[in-house]
Design a protein that fits this description.
CATH class: Alpha Beta
Radius of gyration: 20 Å
Number of domains: 1
CATH architecture: 3-Layer(aba) Sandwich
CATH topology: Glutaredoxin
Number of strands: 5
Distance between the termini: 62 Å
Strand content: 15-25%
CATH superfamily: Glutaredoxin
Length: 140
């Protein structure tokens, strides 16, 4: 059994570790994980505004080309982990955001730099097309 002094030392050490963790800069979890994150009307701009470079897939749950694109974007998210934030927006559930970008057809992938739309790539493409497009987006 621990005495009071030993318990106090453990408590102080844990508190010190918590304080150190709290003072460290926060890493944007989705970006760090290399995942495609689902966004909605309420969190779209607050999330995209915090990223340096991001790619957003506007899709429909009913859309077969969108379903084909999903694993391609997941693979690219892992490849560009820490460099590009990958997100997706369901146009049927998030009409306001889809209307802002005048999304008429899906899939439609938009590139953003510092929270501002730069360009888009409509339709389903091969992974190499997206890869080259992302490289140009990073270079812009």
């Amino acid at each position: 059994m621990l005495n009071d002094d030993e318990l106090e030392a453990i408590r102080r050490r844990k508190m010190q570790l918590l304080m150190e963790r709290a003072s460290q800069p926060k890493v944007q979890e989705p970006l760090a994980q290399g995942a495609v994150v689902e966004l909605n009307d309420s969190n779209f701009w607050s999330t995209i505004g915090q990223t340096k470079t991001s790619l957003v897939d506007f899709y429909g749950a009913w859309c077969q080309p969108c379903k084909t694109l999903a694993p391609i974007l997941s693979e690219l998210a892992r490849e560009y982990k820490g460099k590009v934030f990958f997100a997706k927006v369901d146009i049927d559930r998030n009409l306001a955001t889809a209307r802002q970008f005048q999304v008429q057809s899906v899939p439609n992938v938009f590139g953003f730099k510092h929270g501002k739309p730069v360009n888009n790539l409509p339709g389903l493409r091969g992974i190499n097309d997206y890869d080259m497009w992302i490289e140009r987006l990073l270079a812009a």
